[in-house]
Amino acid sequence: MDKAISVQALTIAYGAATAVSAVDLDIARGKVTVLAGPNGCGKSTLLRAIRRLHQPKSGEIRLGDLPISGLKEKELARHIGLLAQSPSAPDDMSVEELVRLGRYPHQTMLQPWSAADSDAIQAAMFGTGVSHLAERRLGSLSGGQLQRVWIAMVLAQETDIICLDEPVNHLDMAHQIDCLDLVSRLNREHGRTVVLVLHDLNLAARYADRLVFMKEGGLVADGAPAELMQEALIENVFGISCRVIEDPVHQRPLCIPIRNSSPRFGTAPQV
């Protein structure tokens, strides 16, 4: 495997609570890797750690052959872009102003702005289909439009690796597909390495080259969707019994939930 990122024996803790425990994971260059698992399993923490937003208790993360701990912030930001879950910006900021923020890793005191910066911004907005919104205020956008603008900001950063934490959270079905189709196109047409956190297992199976299942801070299994979308494994990781069939349209595994193996909210009170 041509590795873009290598996670080695990584443990991350918040005080006495361990969020990620001794995880080993290689992220393949030029592929779409999806981190999946139940709430609180550590997938978002792992994604943020890849962008060095969490200090490991032990272990390390390497960018190619280089430990990310030894890279300067702007150098790391020129390689790895991150769109956090539910990002925020002032409603009165314009679309172009937000996308311009993606160029901060390329700014220097001697050259605060360049033609390359302008070209990158225009290309990012064109690629995400938001060029016509350049002067619009963020507060006037729909949820789908706003998510495309945030992705444009990350693209303007011009990184080889893009990390997206629940990019379709709070979007309706049509905008979820639009967003993930866009991400897939960036991978296929531009060779970007993409690491996604997704809650929807069927969307994960549809778009991933590689699935990573996490549970209670640890890595349970990783592989192609056809390998991991197995009924017993899904029940073990997600606590839900299901049937797995082939999606007749995309020929990808499709999970049909039946019931929780162990209900998380108890039983309904008797009245």
Rg from Cα: 19 Å
The number of E-state strands comes to 12
Separation of termini?
59 Å
Contiguous uncertain segments of 5+ residues: none
Give the total of domains.
Answer: 2
SS strand fraction = 25-35%
GO cellular component, one term: plasma membrane
Membrane topology: Peripheral membrane protein
Domain ABC transporter: 5-241
GO molecular function, one term: ATP binding
Could you describe the 3D structure shown?
The protein has 271 residues and is of the alpha/beta class. It has 2 domains: 1-79 and 160-177 and 186-228, Rossmann fold (3-Layer(aba) Sandwich); 87-158, no CATH class. It is 31% helix and 29% strand. The protein contains 9 helices and 12 strands. The chain has helices at residues 43-50, 73-77, 95-100, 115-127, 143-156, 173-190, 201-207, 225-228, 231-238, and strands at residues 3-14, 17-28, 32-36, 58-63, 66-67, 80-83, 161-165, 193-197, 210-215, 218-223, 240-246, 253-260. The strands form 3 sheets. It has a 6-stranded mixed sheet with strand order 6-7-8-3-9-10, with helices on both faces. A 4-stranded antiparallel sheet has the order 2-1-4-5, covered by helices on one side. A two-stranded antiparallel ribbon has the order 11-12. Helix 4 packs antiparallel against helix 5 (143-156) and helix 5 runs parallel beside helix 6. The longest helix is centred in the C-terminal third of the chain and has 18 residues, at 173-190. The relative contact order is 0.15. Residues 5-241 form the ABC transporter domain. GO terms for molecular function: ATP binding; ATP hydrolysis activity. It is found in: Cell membrane. It is a peripheral membrane protein. It holds the Pfam family ABC_tran.
